[in-house]
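Thread: magnesium ion complex, take 2
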Amino acid sequence: MASVTFDKATRLYPGGDKPAVDQLELEIEDGEFLVLVGPSGCGKSTSLRMLAGLEDVNGGAIRIGDRDVTHLPPKDRDIAMVFQNYALYPHMTVADNMGFALKIAGEDKATIRRKVEEAAKMLDLTQYLDRKPKALSGGQRQRVAMGRAIVRKPQVFLMDEPLSNLDAKLRVSTRTQIAALQRDLGITTVYVTHDQVEAMTMGDRVAVLKDGLLQQVDTPRNMYDRPANLFVAGFIGSPAMNLVEVPITDGGVKFGDSVVPVSREALSAAADAGDKTVTVGVRPEHFDIGETGGLTITVNVVEELGADGYVYGSKDGQDIVVRVGGRQVPEKGSSLHVVPRAGEMHVFSTSTGARLSD
Ligand SMILES: Nc1ncnc2c1ncn2[C@@H]1O[C@H](COP(=O)(O)OP(=O)(O)OP(=O)(O)O)[C@@H](O)[C@H]1O
Ligand SMILES: [Mg+2]
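Output below.
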């Protein structure tokens, strides 16, 4: 087991005009499950492939434990990677697929068999060891790919969207299994996904990337409670945080017909940047609904989920999502006065996107 360090690691693809991964700084603890998340093209796979040694590093360094692996070939890094397409050998049995790396490494047959059987037991694959991959379901193939990584007992697991070929229900159960397995094995894991729900449910910590730049790295809880900028605020959470540009007034901001207090520090930071507005963020569950005042929205769609419901409303082209109790669902077409609950409003700079509130 080992820690992993990206030390200003940069990847500029030949012919590119800006780096696909730009001075990535990330320290992953020994045994930690870190999830890299972000929209398509933000540099997740490139980061993982740099750590695997499948992509050149053009600046900075990468360390596993205290070994500088920046220029080591993949086979000398003691890592195992699980790819999106699993890359199983179709002509080999499950057992041979799982034991292949050990065979290449020159381990004896009995040892290979023992390690494969151990992993198969963990993954519930024992009864499939003699089958070929084509005779397995998608979920079983996914587990074989995991098994192939596990038998090697590497220092680090790398996984690039390993669940994207599974249907929605299987994805949910498999993500729990992977997280539990990782906890049992205690092997440092870097896991890539574009799905923020997967990131938030699986990771000890989550790192959000955008355009090759690290936006924030934090525990799921902190990421949700205190997003560092407008991008993270809008990306993490489902339904997404409401982001509304509002005018600054004395001691606060004007939210519809109400004045919502904002800290002096946040307001002066906005004023220093020459801004007349800030962008406030309010999660759907953090609105108070009143009889008057606040922002008056028209209810367009109501989503009833039983225990609670989501109201999709709008005001002058600004969409607003509000969570309501399951028994207090308003009528479609009605009006609702909403105001951010005290202490639950996030404040961001409209011009830079940076977080201004505590
Ligand atoms: N071999 C390559 N040569 C040139 N550019 C590349 C190469 N591979 C990736 N890129 C570019 O680098 C950027 C990052 O790509 P990367 O594959 O890391 O994104 P990603 O975050 O994994 O996206 P996705 O969620 O779609 O898999 C993209 O703009 C992509 O077009
Ligand atoms: Mg990718």
